[in-house]
Amino acid sequence: MPVSSLAGQREAVLITRVTNWCLNNCRIVGQFGSSQSCYNLPLPKPTVRGPDASVVLTARWNTLSTNEQAEAFPRVAPNFVAEIRSDNDSWEYCHNKMLVYMVDEGIN
């Protein structure tokens, strides 16, 4: 979804920082991505989400088979997610959005 230029800049900075951290910690990182990297969260009702930035650690990523890792939306909850809050989003909205990731095996 298109965002304002300021939000786009904040997202670019966030993604750069997360990417740099992942590249500097490549032994523990299995997968990382931007909002275009979506996950099928392991919830009772299928829920596909694409956070602005995400990290799945190797220990969790490697529980998936090679075929599962290659799926467009792997069925895994990231260990870390970050979202850029838009000026139009309330804190409650953002809080509820983040709670979706906190499934049993979700973010820490």
TrEMBL record:
Q: Which residues form a coiled coil?
A: none
Show where the Putative restriction endonuclease domain sits. Answer: 2-107
Query: A GO term (biological process) for this protein?
Result: double-strand break repair
Q: Which CDD domains match?
A: DUF820-like
State the source organism's domain of life. Answer: Eukaryota
Q: Which Gene3D superfamilies match?
A: tt1808, chain A
Database matches in InterPro entries: Nuclease_put_TT1808, Restrct_endonuc-II-like, Uma2
Listed name of the protein: Putative restriction endonuclease domain-containing protein
The organism of origin for this protein = Glomus cerebriforme
